[in-house]
Design brief:
Strand content of chain B: 15-25%
Distance between the termini of chain A: 24 Å
Helix content of chain B: 25-40%
Shape of chain B: globular
Strand order of the largest sheet of chain B: 7-8-9-3-10-11-13-12
Radius of gyration of chain B: 21 Å
Bound molecules: adenosine-5'-triphosphate, iron/sulfur cluster, magnesium ion
Largest sheet of chain B: 8 strands, mixed
Order of helices and strands of chain A: HEEEHEEHEHHHEHEHEEHHEHE
Helix content of chain A: 25-40%
Order of helices and strands of chain B: HEEEHEEEHEHHHHEHEHEEHHEEHH
Number of helices of chain A: 11
Largest sheet of chain A: 8 strands, mixed
Oligomer: heterodimer
CATH topology of the largest domain in chain B: Rossmann fold
Number of helices of chain B: 13
Amino acid sequence: MTNTTSPANSMDPLALELCALSKTFKLGGGMLHKPQTLKAVNEVSLRVPRGQVMGLVGESGCGKSTLAKMLLGLTPPSSGDVLINGKAIVNANQKALARHIQPIFQDPYSSLNPRQRIAQIVGLPLRIHALGTPREQAAKVDQMLDLVGLPKRAAQQYPGQMSGGQRQRVAIARALIMRPDLVICDEPTSALDVSIQAQILNLLLDLKDEFGLTYLFISHDLAVVEHLADRLAVMYLGQIVEEGTREQIFTAPRHPYTQALLASALTPEPGLGVPDIGLGAGQPDPTQPPSGCAFHPRCPIAQPQCSEQTPKLSAITHASGQAFGKGSQARVACHLA
Amino acid sequence: MSNLSTAEHSAATSSPLLTVKQLRVDLPVAKGTLHAVRGIDFHVERGEMLCLVGESGCGKSMTSLALMGLLPRKAQVNADCLNFDGVDLLTVPERERSNLRGARMAMIFQEPMTALNPAYTLGNQLSEALRRHQRVSRQAAHDRALYLLKRVGISAAEERMRQYPHQLSGGLRQRVMIAMALMCEPDLIIADEPTTALDVTIQAQILHLLRDLQQEFGTAIIFITHDLGVVARIADRVAVMYAGEVIETASAQALFKAPSHPYTQGLLRCIPTPGKTLPGSRLQAIPGVVPSLVGKIEGCAFCNRCDQADERCRTTPPLQAVAGEHFSRCHFAHQLASPAPLNDQEVTS
Ligand SMILES: Nc1ncnc2c1ncn2[C@@H]1O[C@H](COP(=O)(O)OP(=O)(O)OP(=O)(O)O)[C@@H](O)[C@H]1O
Ligand SMILES: Nc1ncnc2c1ncn2[C@@H]1O[C@H](COP(=O)(O)OP(=O)(O)OP(=O)(O)O)[C@@H](O)[C@H]1O
Ligand code: SF4
Ligand code: SF4
Ligand SMILES: [Mg+2]
Ligand SMILES: [Mg+2]
């Protein structure tokens, strides 16, 4: 990250801003059970500058996909705001939203209609928005397929006739045909082999440069996130516990959960063995989150105050802060960080 | 047979626990015969961790199902040798085979829900796994189940025993599967992508556990995965599969240090490696697709994607030694065995 931000640029609205966004699910409530509430996303605030890749990582079930679904208008937030290009999307309908924000999901198998030809699938958004004549639409589809590296004949094929990697290319073509500003990638390569993953990651990077896209990139694969992301947000039990630049998070993680997460990533270096990260047994029950800091039952450095007071996500000056340059403010939610 | 302890067995023979020679699995499909496994050789020593890697569809699951005797009915198995500790798995009667299964060889499936019965409590299923094979009291089976659940890091094990599979998270179910596989102290466990669906912190805990248990019980493990990070950290030896064949086998050290087959080399270049790959730089991908497994494959199966291919590759390359226990199925294996780490060129670019 070099600091060439011109005044004009810094006036630019953020591509995406989340203000205290929350999602609460109501569970159960049968004859024998009293209804429970589950805070899947709990007051998440996050700013994503235009043209950047924001990585989002965290334990299975910590609320990443729920967050993504709220941004896409697929599920309404319980409270809080989402701003896209500086404008709130509260009352925006899904159709209007689709022009600015598009998803790429993990499973290229179930996210494509098996009974439609690829040309129809990719061109659907254009038809919904009635953009251009049929001929113009067809030309645009061809152009998109070409861009994502699919042969012309792919247009007439069905999803069932394609490999996983090809289907993910179709999903990308469909997401980008509306020229959105923002793309939400929820584990876009976890169902793919590594040789195909490399092709898709290259493609995502190329398209980002070409269209000036902003990505929210959700993944369990930390090596992939490190490769792609400019900034990183780490979630635990519905909350962001740390946020900062790639360099900050990967070289000097401050939150004990982030540290445990990074320590568990297995790089292909033989002889190093599997680290014992000492996180203890269980993941917490999300319907009964621990008091104070939600991480305290598993935290190796927890203090008495941790079970009583909830740490706030607050700005930190990094120990090696200078080296990361201006505008690289980091936040962490830990009493001891 | 199953009364003999592992120690007595090891003393009786120093041959590998499992020997596989020219294993073939054929499946009839609409367009002919699909050769899912096309003549593979490997062996597993007692107490060893062998990792089986390769891309989707290369025959990893078919190989393990063949070993367990759990292939779909329409599948045909052939081999020159399929020997598990003196038992010929090709000719063993089905009754004896099903005794072996669970008692001496156990499998951990990728999706634990396929192997757990939703209608029974975990305690019930765990105890049953032992009592099916050994004459032990209910109490003894219960005690062993409890011990193993604790051993796989499940807290409140006594309560968990009374729960049903659907009441557990994915990570917990996977650990229950591991405990179940260990109930009879098998000599061989086949684990088919046991951690792929889990996140990295839980994955690390489970791998740790498998390693510990292996040392404690002397169990041999065939670990199937396509995660090269996992392979590097847990494998004693690695067999890389491509299109139904084993194309390279070596110790984990040798494989990562000096991969000697273009496919293995390609795989290692594909993955971004922190500290080696420049963030945001282009990753190297393997172009092209795997050949169809229906019908015969002429010459080297990797030929259509290989940047080293030449005339010679029209003939099938033999599996040849590049160093002691390091084999590669490539005509140019010896030239390729360069010790330079492959990712380094990325840093300088
Ligand atoms: N429709 C729903 N009703 C009730 N609970 C839900 C619903 N969707 C998600 N949850 C719960 O909300 C929490 C967050 O789920 P979410 O899918 O967002 O997690 P995630 O971080 O994407 O996990 P993963 O990494 O496994 O995909 C979980 O506890 C989940 O069980
Ligand atoms: N029941 C079946 N009938 C016909 N062909 C099958 C059947 N099951 C698998 N195959 C084919 O056999 C080949 C080997 O499949 P296998 O499941 O062993 O692959 P794998 O290496 O385990 O892949 P993955 O990593 O995706 O699990 C594949 O080409 C697959 O399409
Ligand atoms: S606030 Fe306390 S329990 Fe929470 S992460 Fe920090 S030290 Fe650990
Ligand atoms: S035998 Fe030829 S085609 Fe096959 S891997 Fe070696 S060089 Fe490539
Ligand atoms: Mg998710
Ligand atoms: Mg498989």
